[in-house]
Structure to design on (200 residues):
């Protein structure tokens, strides 16, 4: 027995509706497949400090995590890995970077050249991805410079005090020497005058 044309159209409409609903749900799942959370988007640090670029993500399956670094000196990929596997770290960061399964990285002994933008991209197996940025500013340790200047000024003051003391001692010695000389000169002049008086 053949189905009635209106019933066939009704079944086809339900099938198309279910298909459209499945496609919409798949699109929603794919667009919301990865979520990324960055608790601190700007970090200030000083030279030689260890810095944690902290993030957290959630997604379906095991994603690929990639960090890039951008600054005035250029842009480069610094690390890429899948949680639970060996990280592929760039040569410039080989011995001073540590990765974590939640997507965070730690930089050891940062310098001024490490200042810039750190961009993380988390890509799911199905192709959806999310990215975020952390700005790192590394500055020189000012108090060490001031300490150096203070020590240098103290050294200069000590040298100046020593030179002034030496000059004072030399001046005293020269004054005593001149006084003795004058005294001897006076005595010899007096003796000459006395001799002259005696001779007369």
């Amino acid at each position: 027995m053949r189905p009635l044309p209106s019933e066939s159209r009704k079944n086809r409409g339900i099938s198309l509706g279910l298909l459209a609903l499945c496609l919409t749900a798949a699109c929603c799942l794919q667009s919301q497949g990865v979520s990324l959370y960055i608790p601190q988007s700007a970090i200030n640090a000083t030279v030689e400090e260890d810095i944690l670029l902290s993030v957290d993500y959630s997604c379906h399956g095991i994603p690929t995590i990639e960090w890039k670094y951008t600054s005035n000196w250029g842009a480069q990929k610094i690390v890429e890995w899948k949680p639970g596997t060996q990280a592929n770290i760039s040569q410039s960061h080989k011995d001073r970077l540590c990765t974590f399964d939640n997507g965070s990285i730690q930089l050891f002994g940062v310098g001024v050249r490490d200042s810039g933008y750190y961009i993380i991209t988390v890509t799911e197996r199905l192709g959806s991805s999310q990215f975020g940025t952390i700005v790192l500013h590394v500055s020189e340790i000012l108090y060490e410079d001031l300490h150096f200047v203070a020590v240098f000024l103290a050294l200069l003051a000590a040298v100046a005090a020593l030179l002034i003391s030496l000059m004072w001692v030399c001046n005293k010695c020269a004054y005593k020497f001149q006084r003795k000389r004058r005294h001897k000169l006076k005595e010899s002049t007096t003796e000459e005058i006395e001799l002259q008086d005696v001779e007369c």
The chain is about 40% helix and 30% strand. Residues 24 and 182 are 116 Å apart (CA to CA). The two ends are 177 Å apart (CA to CA). The chain has two domains: 34-140, 141-194.
